[in-house]
Write a structure and sequence with these properties.
The protein is α/β, with parallel strands linked by helices and 296 residues long. Helices cover 40% and strands 19% of the residues. It contains twelve helices and twelve strands. The strands form three sheets. It has a five-stranded mixed β-sheet with strand order 2-1-3-11-4. α3 packs across α10 and α4 runs parallel beside α5.
């Protein structure tokens, strides 16, 4: 009896398995590598002006691949706006999310925090002006041009707009990165810029021939960011990812910037700030480009 005739006499489930096996042999003979049974996980990150530099995650990528038996991809984005697009599309399995992105992803797109990112003591939002300017406080900045970060930035967008509530500004100048915020102030396109104290200390020396000073510090503590997991990842795999991350070797975790055994921050206040700002200023492009702009 021919093999084809034998197959016809077999139960459906056996025939299906047989066909899959034969298909696999055919694909192998064609040089096509099979990945059946291997989950692919995409990790989203923010790089700002660092391009596609993701070397800090090399150790983590290899560790997760081995422990989860998965294909791990690292996908960097240039700023928060691009990151929000990926989060909204649920294109990322895991996200290394700074606080503003974390608050939005959790409250609007059902991402779940697993592990805290390595926090920083300088995450306060600050307003920066040229050193020789006459501005002294928030009220003195009424009617001026404000350079802000992208929607999704806690210190460069949500907290500064929250603090300017009740005032009219001449213009908002959205800037792609924290360094671009300082450049807008240095070039005179903006009177004041908003970013974190950490970012200010990092980039102020990179802007030649311009000295800055901090005119306002928001005293609210901005929570550290977190590694978030997509709601599209099945719960069993989420638990496995969480456990593996908690057991990450110290050197790999330090390079990637997270605390394996840390406690996830409380984002309740951060979420409330995001909601308030969105009620004041929807993120529609036409709203951001109005002149003047009324923040009430």
């Amino acid at each position: 009896m021919l093999i084809s005739e034998i197959i016809q006499t077999l139960p459906f489930s056996v025939k299906a398995s047989r066909r899959l096996f034969l298909a696999g042999l055919f694909l192998s003979s064609c040089g096509v590598r099979q990945s059946i049974g291997r989950e692919q996980l995409t990790i989203g990150t923010l790089t700002y002006g660092a391009g596609n530099q993701t070397s800090q995650y090399d150790g983590l990528k290899q560790y997760l691949s081995e422990k989860l038996q998965s294909i791990i991809q690292i996908e960097p984005t240039f700023n928060e706006n691009k990151a929000l697009e990926r989060i909204k599309a649920r294109a990322w399995s895991l996200v290394f999310a700074p606080p503003g992105l974390a608050a939005i992803a959790m409250s609007q797109y059902r991402y779940t925090p697993l592990i805290p990112l390595d926090g920083n003591s300088n995450l306060n939002s600050v307003l920066v002006v040229k050193k020789d300017s006459l501005y002294q406080d928030l009220k003195s900045l009424a009617g001026k041009k404000l350079a802000i970060g992208q929607p999704g930035s806690a210190t460069g967008y949500y907290f500064p707009i929250y603090n300017f509530y009740g005032l009219i500004l001449a213009e908002l100048i959205p800037s792609a990165t924290p360094k671009a915020v300082l450049e807008a102030v240095a070039q005179g396109r903006a009177d004041v810029g908003a970013l974190s104290l950490q970012e200010f200390n990092t980039h102020k020396t990179e802007i030649s021939q311009t000295e800055f000073r901090v005119v306002f510090v928001d005293r609210h503590r901005v929570p550290a960011g977190a590694i978030l997991v997509s709601p599209d990842i099945e719960l069993k795999l989420q638990d496995s990812i969480h456990q593996v991350l908690q057991n990450t070797p110290a050197l790999i975790a330090r390079q990637a910037g997270f605390i394996p055994q840390g406690t996830v921050p409380d984002y309740k206040y951060m979420v409330s700030v995001v909601k308030r700002v969105r009620s004041i200023l929807p993120t529609d492009r036409s709203q951001l480009t109005q002149k003047p702009i009324r923040l009430f």
